[in-house]
Amino acid sequence: MSATQLIWRLDIPSPMVRRLCREFRELAPETVQRCVADVGRRGRHLGVDLTPRLVEVVAREHLTSMVKSEPPSARRADRSSGE
């Protein structure tokens, strides 16, 4: 069994998830954890041997796009509902 396979048998490296949760505070921790898990599953499905570092980089890119894709109308709705 390779080192990468062993890492994925242990599931998600929690230090990675904690780093990404700190970086993306606007997202729920469950969303961050699911994103990291999904990146790993997609890599395995495609037959790509992903290292934990590569999983983190791809997950960070995906999370960044999630944060930046929020429409401006949603931000206005949040502000107006608190008034």
Q: What's the domain count?
A: 1
Catalogue the unreliable spans: 3-10
**How would a textbook summarize the main sheet?**
none
Q: Report how far the terminal alpha carbons are from each other.
A: 57 Å
The number of helical runs is 5
Rg estimate, integer Å: 15 Å
Quaternary organization? single chain
What shape does the CA trace take?
A: globular
Give average pLDDT, whole number: 80
User: What share of the residues lie within helices?
Assistant: over 70%
Alpha-beta classification = mainly alpha
Count of β-strands: 0
Strand content: under 5%
Order of helices and strands: HHHHH
Main attributes?
globular; 5 helices; about 80 residues; mainly alpha
If you had to describe this structure to a student in words, what would you say it looks like?
This protein has five helices and no strands. The chain has 83 residues and is mainly α. The protein has one domain (3-66). The longest helix has 18 residues, at 29-46. It is globular. Mean pLDDT is 80; it is low at 3-10.
Q: Can I get a quick summary?
A:
With 83 residues, the protein is mainly α. It contains five helices and no strands.
Helix and strand topology:
Layout: H1 3-9, H2 14-23, H3 29-46, H4 52-68, H5 72-81
Helix pairs in contact: 2-3, 3-4
